[in-house]
Amino acid sequence: MKISILNLIPRFIDETSQQSINRGLELAKWADGQNFERYWVAEHHNSKSISCSATDLIIGYILENTKRIKVGAGGVMLPNHTPFQVAERYGTLETLYPDRVDLGIGRAPGTDIETAKLIYRDTYKEDNFKEAIRTLLSYFEDEAENFKVRPYPGVGTHVPVYILGSSMTSAHIAAQLGLPYSFAGHFSPNTVEVALKIYREEFTPSKYLDKPYVMLGVSANAAYEKDAAEHIKQQAISIFLQIQNRNNRDAFLKADPNNSPELTSIEKFMIRTARGLRIEGDMNSVKDQFMEIKQKYNPDEIIAASYIPDFKLLKENYEIIQDLALND
């Protein structure tokens, strides 16, 4: 099974944006020397605790400083960009770094309502998402040379496109277009099974893909030692609750669960039901969790997200997940 990394470029307390971006780069450089398939960066806006609003710039920075690993958007939120702009930007990246650029496309704006008003395209309608994907795909084709307006240098670059989603709607679209499907199991665990069933059953072979391809997002918080595993688990819970607090966008992520207030009943419920698919704990625990995910969902690839602030433990975490995927 292929294994990849999803990074939201988290920014922790007492850390600058530059430091958080460079920590993301260091992780990518480390992953480049391992057996990871790809390294994706998400798109989020108006959050002091996340430094990946200009996704294509972060991707270019990582590509320039790595040699092998595929780097891409996980993903570009299409309400915020025209297909033409996306084709120009990612076609440029593909021109500079051939065969190393991925493009994941999502339907959500990736931000709050107030920010969305500033960046949302008035011409975009969610019902037209599938057609917008078709337009984007056509811009990357050789035939785009015949268009009246051409997204150079994206024409003919054939940047691989993935449909991102966390619902049944995205599953239908990915299947109908014959594209690979990346499901956000790390934050939408309750619809994974149904969405993947829809995608696989409705999949129509295309010139891009002859059979279904599922990339499954999971949260990863693994460690070799039991005490370290419990520590990063509690960190992950604390950070999860901070991210869920939409009124707290001006705050940095705090990684010390010991200083967190007592949990409310709502927070306890969220932890039980909304933390997503995860591989979490020491070696004995994560082996069983990995096998359960593999047997239940049978993904072609796992893409793992983690918010561990300690870089040594972060690498250890991904090392464990990599070993599970490659030696299952």
From TrEMBL:
PANTHER family linked to this entry: LUCIFERASE-LIKE MONOOXYGENASE
GO cellular component: cytosol
UniProt cross-references to InterPro entries, sorted A to Z: Bact_Lucif_Oxidored, CmoO-like, Luciferase-like_dom, Luciferase-like_sf
Domain of life: Bacteria
Keywords carried by this UniProt record: Monooxygenase, Oxidoreductase
Pfam families linked to this entry: Bac_luciferase
Domain Luciferase-like: 1-249
UniProt similarity note: To bacterial alkanal monooxygenase alpha and beta chains.
MF (Gene Ontology): monooxygenase activity; oxidoreductase activity, acting on paired donors, with incorporation or reduction of molecular oxygen
Protein name as it appears in the record: Alkane 1-monooxygenase
